[in-house]
Inverse folding.
């Protein structure tokens, strides 16, 4: 049972720190780095256009799969576009229903929330088709993955779902970052069953976790804030290409590829680790 303030999911995001995710705890035997807040971690090596500017929106979501594909939800065109990390276009999946958020399930599948339909669709981006559709009893918004399960932000509750058996789970092991639509970023710790919060300079728009459990949070003032893994401290990122992002909607880090991807206007920027 969570203590203190309960998360209220309206139009917000949730995420699991990387060091709490089962599928990243043993990433091809690589050594996990520990980052200092605000240090230069990434450098941009690629930027490619995804659509005409008139067909892009700040709400576009981007993720990178473990095999290196980039998937981008385009809300205006109601589609999911798939790219290689060199920017070449692989394919486009038309979406019949309005989407909200997206998370990587495994190498070739992503899960997409559809709040107006109280539904989660799972797509195979290689075959460019829906492989499963899960009907819920409540609207669903933010989504992330934890130990091969889906963690879904719904109206005043969090659902933990086994996508294989399509059933809800009553408990889980891990920490969660989440927002409730204001300047506060909340951190739920499974270890002591406690919720802490830190007030950011402005409202958070999108976020992702790095391999040490810290988080990059894009804020409404165009800044990127680097938040500690315990959710108690933060420092502004000063990397040149991340200093002021402007019209940005999505950000996602993949620990297998060691790459960061963000949407920027009508393009996607790809960053590599130093």
């Amino acid at each position: 049972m969570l203590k203190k303030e309960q998360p209220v999911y309206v139009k917000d995001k949730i995420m699991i720190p990387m060091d709490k995710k089962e599928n990243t705890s043993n990433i091809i035997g690589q050594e996990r780095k520990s980052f200092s807040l605000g240090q230069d971690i990434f450098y941009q090596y690629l930027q490619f256009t995804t659509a005409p500017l008139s067909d892009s929106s700040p709400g576009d979501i981007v993720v990178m799969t473990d095999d290196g594909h980039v998937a981008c939800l385009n809300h205006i065109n109601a589609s999911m576009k798939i790219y290689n990390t060199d920017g070449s276009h692989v394919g486009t999946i038309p979406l019949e229903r309005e989407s909200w958020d997206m998370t990587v399930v495994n190498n070739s599948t992503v899960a997409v929330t559809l709040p107006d339909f109280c539904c989660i669709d799972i797509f195979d981006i290689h075959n460019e088709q829906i492989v499963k559709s899960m009907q819920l009893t409540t609207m669903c918004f933010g989504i992330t993955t934890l130990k091969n399960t889906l963690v879904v932000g719904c109206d005043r509750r969090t659902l933990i779902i086994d996508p294989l058996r399509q059933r809800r789970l009553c408990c889980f092991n891990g920490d969660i970052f989440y927002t409730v639509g204001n300047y506060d970023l909340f951190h739920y710790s499974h270890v002591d069953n406690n919720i802490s919060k830190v007030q950011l300079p402005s409202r958070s728009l999108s976020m992702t976790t790095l391999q040490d459990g810290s988080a990059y949070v894009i804020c409404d003032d165009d800044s990127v804030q680097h938040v500690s893994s315990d959710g108690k401290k933060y420092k502004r990122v000063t990397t040149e290409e991340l200093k002021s992002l402007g019209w940005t909607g999505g950000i996602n880090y993949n620990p297998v590829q060691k790459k960061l991807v963000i949407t920027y206007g009508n393009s996607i920027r790809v960053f590599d680790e130093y």
